[in-house]
Amino acid sequence: MKVIPKGKKLSVVGVLGDSLKVSLTAAAERGEANRQLEEFLAELLGIPSSSVVLRAGLTSRNKLVFLAGVDPERVFQRLQAVLG
What is the fold of 2-83? Predict the structure, then answer.
């Protein structure tokens, strides 16, 4: 996942290669952007925020996100709806 901190609005921007590109309004300071990403993905996918786990990239714009106990088909359908 490619993350853009301090963006104008909180949104899924699109797909970049094999990664989802997400714009966050939070700054990349003190973990604020990471927390906002976790909360945004949970809300977007309709899952508990505890199911969204950052596995890699805590201090990078490139993130590896693990969705614990979530049906991949459900994630795919939600992302398709968001991306159009």
Answer: Conserved Hypothetical Protein Mth637; Chain: A; (3.30.1200)
